[in-house]
Design a protein that fits this description.
It is a single chain. This protein has one domain (2-71). The chain contains three helices and no strands. The longest helix is centred in the middle third of the chain and has 56 residues, at 2-57. The radius of gyration is 33 Å and the shape is rod-shaped. The protein is an all-alpha fold. The protein has helices at 2-57, 60-70, 75-78. It starts with a helix and ends with a helix.
């Protein structure tokens, strides 16, 4: 009888240890996934900022202002510059 109890005890202890390992692994994966999701959200926000900045820089009025500041002459005025 004692051997049967020891056998079942070791089996249950082994199963509990295995369950603890699986649980710890799942917690680590869940933590890593949460970190990745937070990083992904931050990167999406950065992409949105960069796209808005690109759209603003492509605005024809801003391009014309930059060109005038840089010393470029618009084509319509270029032929009269001589």
């Amino acid at each position: 009888m004692r051997a049967v109890v020891l056998r079942w005890g070791f089996l249950l202890a082994g199963l509990l240890f295995l369950l603890a390992l699986v649980g710890a692994n799942a917690q680590a994966k869940r933590r890593a996934l949460a970190e990745l999701r937070a990083e992904h959200a931050a990167l999406q926000a950065r992409v949105a900022e960069l796209e808005a900045e690109l759209a603003a820089r492509k605005n024809p009025k801003r391009v014309l202002e930059w060109a005038k500041r840089a010393g470029f002459v618009p084509l319509a005025e270029g032929r009269w510059a001589r």
